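One example given next:
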Amino acid sequence: MARWPVLPRESERDAVLSILRGSHSRSVMLRGPSGVGKTTLGAHISQALRADGRTVVPVVGLAELAEIPLGALAPVLASAGRVDLESVSDRVQALVAVVGENPTKFVLIVDDAPLLDAVSAGVLYQLVRVFGVTALLTARDSHEVSGPLARLLHENLIDIVDLDGLSLEHSQSILQQYFGGSLRPESLRALFEASRGNPLMLRELTFAAARAGGIHSGDFGVEVSVAALPKHVRATISERLLQLSDDERRLAQLIAIAQPIPHAAIRGDEMDVLARLTTEGVVEDTGDDSLPSVRLAHPLFAEALVVELSRAERTEIIREVASRLTPMGDQQLRFTATVLLTSTDATITNDELDWAANYAHAAGDHTVAAALAERAQVAARRFAPELVLASALSALAESQRSSQVFESVFGLASGDEQRAIALVRWGQHVVYRLAQPAQAVERVTAKLGELDAQAQAVVRPELAKWQLITGDATVLSGVADPVSADGGLAAVNAGLTAAMIATMSGNPNQAFQIIGQTRPLTEAFRFEAPYADALLDLSEFIALVASADIARAGDFAAQRRLDRFADSAGVWSYALAIIRLHDGKLTEASALAALAVDQLKWRDFTGLLGTATALHATIEAQRGNPNIAYRLLSEIAPEYAGDAKVILQRAECEAFLLAAEGRPEDGAHMIIAAVTEGINLGHFLLSALTLTVALRLDQAAAAREQCDVLTQLSTSPLIALIREWGEAAAGRDVVRLCELAPSLASAGVAALAVDGLLAGARSAAKADRRELERKATLLARRLAADMDHRPAERDVEELTEREWTIARAAAGRKRSREIGQQLGLSVRTVDNHLARIYRKLGVTGRVELEQVLTEL
């Protein structure tokens, strides 16, 4: 393993440097909890200041020297070079004189400033207040600022920059650098939550796991088991806890075990104690407005407080916590109480354990779900917890054991309802985890006739999804419509499949209607169909895309991607990758697609892994990386060869690869063949998006017939817009392309618009229509301004920012004199600019200029 990496924290570093370097530079205090990285950030800032030619004067405050006059400045005074001065006071005066006479040359870097002795703090005050020397100070938020430092703050001579913990992304980056690879998501989450982004804690937790032998390589990245921190680490914070009174310590221990704990769970006679703990910086609010709660202010506090408890004391506190949380009527709090009680000898009913196991599985906490399901079957195996265990093991990729437990589930099922639920869960395991959809279809089809009609209604919608993945289009006409609101689980499953088919076929209004009918049913069946809401979300996203409302679709996906540890994380990384691809932002699309593939290998409850892999290959093909693209295509499981999504996405990749070899016509033929299959399998929306590749390869004539077919089959505004674009492109109607391009870009297919405009510009050039060529090229360049990869075109002069300003003013019928007065230019200069603008845009005067700008 590598040395522990240090994160530069560039945004915070640059913000502080801008203050220290400004024409009216000010001193800065970096404030934050122990271990948050204040000293490290200060060192990086010092390096930058040294590179500027500044002389850094380092000072360190130590608690051991706080009572010794000039104890903090002793190293500086000893190295000052004035050996002729024996008196310490003389050396202090000499230091003040040298630094004070050159305030712009020197910068003071003071670590742990609140621990300075009084005399050193007085010297610091004099240098900053009297001589204007710049200083960078660090301070723990737990240390009281007093004396000369407090005066500097009160006199507004120091800006305070509060330093927060690392973000999840930064924590992940550090761990990936250290381990040389990705972490399993559960391990990343455990380390991040345990450290709360505190760099010191993150490092020590990782080192502690290594010492305990808790680091292993797994299928989904490095696996780290969080271990107890060593005593010397806890000692760094324990001194603050030693000052707690008995009642403060008792409440702090209760919070440590339950955190976060709602304010409502704190008794009235504890409110004064809570207020003191908050004032002392031991406890803080979580910032959750929906359920106001408190937690310990530093991640080390919990371990330091709990480690000193005996087993009996810990059990007593857990029972107290559970007695407060359970009656509050909140499911999350009830779950927390139950899980805590499992670590004691408390008696917990099977019903409560069953509920908690189902709750954990539905919430995506599959490790806990499996443990609770096992705990619920100590006396005997039972259907409900065994089903949770099998499903949780599948989610955890313990595939062989999951398959074995599912066979046990079938044996424990009593009645057709339980058999139907078991068949659906087993099928999902086989299709999505084992990637064997044909096997699932064969077994479930054989078993279907053994079930009564109501149980069959639960299974058929799920079976239809798996049949579609195998390439069986016959199910499209036989899938049941959503049933009434009293239809139970069958209604939920039917709604999920009907919404999916409506989005596939590019009928957004129908999809929105079905989603609206199904959502109210999902909460009652969240345990039986734990992914129902996420599947409806995916259908809603696709319906927004089909509606040509890409702005809302992007926001919708981005909002749902905020929970990076949700089982649906890969779905939303994939969704955003699709958006970035069609928007021409290939670098960002590539990163998102790669992430989606990793996340979907970890959790994929909708069969997107093969499609996401083909999407990544498509992006790499466009980026000019054919070897990577071919390698990715080879990784797609052959069992998904009949899935329309994979067929279409693979064809896009191969078409771009053929085009790169100078064979765009062959690429277009490949697209046409794939779209024919996509249409037969009911995937009209994805077929239309795939067909845009043929249009981008300037093969609109070949795609014309299928554009017409898709418009007849679908009500999607996006498909209609793509067809209209294809008509204009096939007819070489460059004027119409320029009219449609902004709408096309707003609908989310800016890459298609840019490529079509550039092809139109070439066509106009051949027809010697230079003005139209220039207009199409300029519009393409404006739409492609944020794209990182696009076809190179012959150079066309762009307007400068100044020229755009003058052009808009002239098109707004302002005279040259008015424009000159507005911009501080002479009339002649404005007229010269206008002449260049007319030449660049291919117009002859202000009237044509106004028309062109309106069109652009």
Q: What stands out?
A: The radius of gyration is 33 Å. Residues 791-796 have pLDDT under 50 and may be disordered. Residues 695 and 726 are 7 Å apart (CA to CA). Strands lie at 27-32, 55-60, 106-111, 134-140, 158-162, 215-218, 221-224, 261-262, 283-285, 293-296.
